[in-house]
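Sample 1 of the test manifest.
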Amino acid sequence: MAAVLEVNNISKKFGGLTALNDVSLLLNEGEILSVIGPNGAGKTTLFNCITGIYRPSAGMISLSGKGVRIDSLPPHRIARFGIARTFQNIRLFANMSVLDNVLCGAFSKTRESIVDIAFRTRKNKAAETAINERARELLNFVDLSDKLYINGCSLSYGDQRRLEIARALALEPDVLLLDEPAAGMNASETNSLAVLIRKIRDNGAALLIIEHDMRFVMEISDRIVVLNYGKKISEGAPEVVRKDKKVIDAYLGEGDQ
Amino acid sequence: MRLNSFTGKFISILLLICAFVVPFISGSYILGVMSLVLIYLILSLGLNVVIGFCGLLALGFAAFYGIGAYITALLFPLTALPVLLAAVVIGSAIFGFISGAPVLRLRGDYLAIVTLGFGEITRLFMKNMDWLTNGPKGISGIYPSVFFGLNLSDKRTVYYCALACVSICVFFLYRLQESKIGRAWSAIREDEVAAASSGINITKMKILAFLIGSVMAGLAGFFFAVNQSFVDPNSFGFDESVLIVCMIVVGGIGSIPGVILGTTILVFLPELLRNFLGGFESYRMLLYGVLLVCMMLFRPQGILPKAGRKRELIPETEEIKMMKTPMFTRRETGNGCSA
């Protein structure tokens, strides 16, 4: 299995606080890798470093397949290289329809100029038709095809999560980062989310997932990376990580012995 | 109301016909006021791209208006009309870029403060660079030479040219709004981080919005200068910037029909006051202030709001209320939807 995303010895400091300390991980093709850890362990900071929202203080992040180093690129360039993400606090575009939200995700997929748009050239029409079809396909894929023209924010919570995933998929990503996708979901929503995530993986994307719902993580992950206080403390298959003493200590506190 | 819907098209054509016959049926006074409406329309539609479409609160917009007017005033004796127009467009675009590029990385309040500063700096330059701008006395006698029978010293010609300019602007603005650029602007307005993570180059799109806005303001300045054949720095001060923002807010931020209505109302209002309530015209600014406060209290979305914004202000649906129960709110903070 070839790696798609390589994170090498990343550190991120905010003033005196070290949010990430020398963290490395490899994401392989077609893999579902979960990042877990107690609150404040640096999971979201890691996501923000990978997607360019933060610039890491040290270390290197690269897309192995494409041979590009992405740790000093702005977020939109990283997105265009095929790294898409969702957010811990769902960040949909308010006051826009479900369809428009996904069309925004496909922004970089068409190449018409402002002149094409002003004079509505054939190129512009073709591009609009193409991304509209693609967006509808994606919304079908996440089971939202009957809600195209509803305001994204009036969807139910689970549907908003699905819409955010559809928007991310519009980038046609090789790597999809999901930040707590199951947060606030009930059991049946979580189950259908697991089905969706597997479908995305089967379509060829690798997934990096932050999640607190342990049952969900254990069920869905190929591998798990555990962070605590910005450091990687464990890595491996779910059954290995589950039994790792360091992980148990991090979650439950060290026992007196 | 969309231009490509039947009613939208019908109303647009009706308005255009009305605007077209105005010079035939009215005296020079009404014509003058209508010209002013058209000039302000170019200006407010331009600012609407910046504030309404892209969500950038720019407060010194009158500076670009002034720059267009001064370029016209300074260059009209030297060149023919097309070159003059090109100079206005390019000049205001350059000023838009110079002032926009460094500050567009700022957000919200900071951008408002910096653009406000830029507006004041421009006005002070106009006032104090006597050798170029003739200082506070201004420049008079702006009569561009006749070009292929197009005599811009004639008020009717100015009116029709401004009308053509407004129509073209409205047409293209609708197309932009409905395109991927329009969607990208909305995305930036709603959530910059999510927009950037969706592959949208936010700096580039903001500069584009700023450029379109400043070029339109420059064109408005051109028409202003040839229409009253006189420019002075006082026409482009902070009052003017605030007035343009008012026009957008009253009509409905981001809504093209709304901005057209808001602008028309705010240009006609002081004229009505002048005619029917003589002596009250000096209370113009007070009246604008009261109007703005009332709008914010009773109809914050504007008179003709954009479809999406209307939803923002309707009462919460059961579903949204349910989402705000403690179980959900835990991770809900920061979501654009719940804001």
